[in-house]
Structures are given as structure tokens and as C-alpha cells.
Amino acid sequence: MLTDREILSTLEMLKNEHLDVRTVTLGISLFDCADHDHERFMQRIYDKICRTAQDLVRVCDEVGLQYGIPVVNKRIAVSPIAVAACAFSAPQMVAIAKTMDEAARATGVDFIGGFGALVEKGMTAGDRALIDAIPEALAETRRVCSSVNVASTNAGINMDAVYLMGKTIKRAAELTADADGLACTKLCVFANIPPDIPFMAGAYLGVGEPDAVINVGVSGPGVVKKAIDRARSASPEADLGQLSEIIKRTAFKVTRVGELIGRQVARKLGVPFGVVDLSLAPTPNVGDSVGEIFQSLGLKAIGVPGSTAVLALLNDAVKKGGIFASSYVGGLSGAFIPVSEDLHIGEAARKGYLSLDKLEALTSVCSVGLDMVVLPGETSAETLAAIIADEMAIGMINGKATAARLIPVPGKKAGDQAFFGGLLGEATIIPVSTHGGADTFVRLGGRIPAPVQSFGN
């Protein structure tokens, strides 16, 4: 239970520090919709999504109003379509994506995830068909998001899939060239993808999950920044260990708020409660930035020397506070560093403090990886695949989830601006090494074997 003082502190977070429940995501299994008839399959998934999620938005709004805690996004995550629709061709997969989009619109949610595949050890015909369909599916829908898992600590890295995803990203960017490659903002390539992510674009409902489940994504980078600022103002001599404790206690309160909302929504919908993902997910709004936390801890900007250590401290403290607050912490849970979605991270990239190489180093200790990284349009599919392979290696060796959400902007070069709007924000295009040499490596294909850490039995 929260004490009176903690309740007052939480109210202050809501009023002045951008605390909210960033997303309530309803997971829906589509495995019982499987059918060899394409039209019948699409009708079944549309009916199940609409039937299961028909009250989601209304209930989230009611619960948010009851507790005075806004639920910013209401979303749906479904079973990986490459599995549920494994019998169908790429054009049929595009039609399925459009059906998902229609169901999302009918239920009033902002995004629906799960148009994806799990190919860390190999690809089936259904996997290939879905990946072939991704560019058109994301270009021709508004709400559909896609995630493809190409690596894991137990399986290694499927380099054939990595190369294919490099080509897929390139094609998706080309199909939405008039919107700065917008389709790529809805596509994540993962290693060790968790089955219960509530945040987009990675969200899907994993095998082994319930028929329907509520997963919650809380946030609060502004809350954490203000807590650090107050502590340093009250005790200028506070060291990093003491500030870590402040972050941990703040994450505890934020997590309790998220679980409270999630359990109430689940109860009203009559479905199980799943997990709280306690990731610090920023927005482009002033005062809601992970990048500002680095400044509060004494750095000029994210990307300068010391940034990896600060991010390690931040990620660890957030996880410790969240785990103490709830027995059901899941998803990614930590600190996101999306370049275009965070005002101060985007500014650090624009000023040259934050390079692609430094971003990759930061991902060794953060929760998600190379997120919303905007690259020159001339970046080749092979170079994109090599960047993805590097990120997947970090996840594979460290036994953690990592991802790459890369946007090569057609017709633009390093230093230009890309604009996506809304929560996706805008960003300066980051230069990519022009020394080349990755093409031969990427085209070798095959599978990078699983590391020794995989032998855990």
C-alpha cells in the first residue's frame, strides 16, 4: 500500500510531471481463427478482434477518469500472423493486414501489432510470405505494426532473415518516400523478443499466452527527471548511489500506478491481467524526455562520454524499483532511447553529440536498441542488414532483448530533417560509415551459431 505521503507525491507526478499510463494493450490470440479459406480466415479474425476489443477504449477511459490517471494509448496485439496465417501467399498477407487495420479502426485503438514472424532459426513458407508482404502492408495501412525476430541467445542469428529484413526496410521506405519512409517507423527487427510487449511497434501476443490478456506500459521520464532534480537541489552532495535509490523509489510508485490501472481494466473486460512493462518511454513533448535525465545527472547531453554508464544506472534502478512494486513485470522494461520520439535525444543527434556508433554502444545496456534511427536514403539494403546484425549480436551475446527500428529516408542525406508527426516526432538524419565492406559479409548468409551462453540445461 502507498503511504499518504506517497499518494501526495503521485498526485504531484500526475499534475506537473507527465505521469500517465502510456498504453493499455489487449492481447488477442488468433490461433483459433486458422482456416485454409482466405476469406473465411479474414472474417474470423475481424470478428474476434472486434468482439474481444469492443469495450477496450471505453473501459480504459472510464478507469482513467475514475482514478484521474490518463491512459494515453489503447492498443491491440495479436498472435504472429506468419503462424496464424501460414497457408497464405504474400498478396493474401497484405489483405490480412488491411483486415487488421479495419478491425483496429472499428474498435477505436491507435495501433494493432502482430503482423510479424519468429524466424531466429529458419523460415517457413508462411514466414517468407509475411516478410515479403511487410512493405506493402505497412504502406497501405495506418494502424498495423510489424515485428520480426531474427535472433536469440538460444538459436543464434539467422543471417538470411537479417539480409531479407534489410531489403524489406529499404522497400518499405521507398513505398512511403513522400512521407519520409513512414512505413519503417512501424517495423522492428528483434533479438530475444519478449512475448508480452505492450509498446509498439514490437507488440505481439506470443505462443503460450492466454486467449486474451491485458498488458500495460507505464512511463514517466519526466517524473524521474524531476525526482533527481529535487534530490540534487535538497542535497547537493548526493552521489550516484543515492540518486540511483531515488530513481528506484520513483519507478516503484510509477509501476504501482500502472498495475492498478491494468488490473482494473482487465477486471472490467473479464480477461486476465498480464504484465506491467515499466519502460521509460519518452515523447517529443518538453519535460517528457529520457535525454533530459542525462543532463540532470551531470552530462551535457546523451552521447557524450559517460552516457553508457548513466544509462546503465538508470536502466538498473528502474528495473529494481519495478520488480519490487509488482510480481508481474514483463515486456521490455527499462529505458527507451528513440531518436525521433525524444526531443533531447533528437537534439543531441542534430548537434553531433550522438552518433550511430555511440547509439549502438548505449544499446548494450538499454531496453530496446536502435530505435527510430533515421538514416540517409542512399543507405543500401546490405548496410542496413549489417547494422541490424550488429544489434542482434548485442542481444544474442548478452541474453537480452534488442531491436532495430531503422528509417532510411528516400532522397535525403545526413544532416537533413525527417518529419513523421505526432508521437513519432522528427529527427536529424545520422550519417552512416561510407567505408563499405559489409556487402560480402551479409551475402554469406547462413546462421551465426548460438553462443556458449545458450547451453543452460
Structure description:
- The structure is a single chain.
- The protein has 457 residues and is α/β, with parallel strands linked by helices.
- The chain folds into two domains: 25-191, Anaerobic Ribonucleotide-triphosphate Reductase Large Chain; 214-449, Alpha-Beta Barrel (Anaerobic Ribonucleotide-triphosphate Reductase Large Chain).
- Helix content is 45%, strand content 16%.
- The chain has 15 helices and 14 strands.
- It has helices at 4-16, 38-53, 56-67, 81-84, 90-107, 125-139, 159-175, 221-234, 240-269, 291-296, 307-325, 343-351, 356-362, 381-398, 438-443; strands spanning 21-28, 71-78, 111-113, 117-118, 144-152, 156-158, 187-191, 212-218, 273-277, 369-376, 402-409, 417-419, 426-428, 447-448.
- The strands form two sheets. Strands 1, 2, 3, 4, 5, 6, 7, 8, 9, 10, 11 and 14 form a twelve-stranded mixed β-sheet that branches.
- It is globular, with a radius of gyration of 21 Å.
- The model has no long low-confidence stretch (mean pLDDT 89).
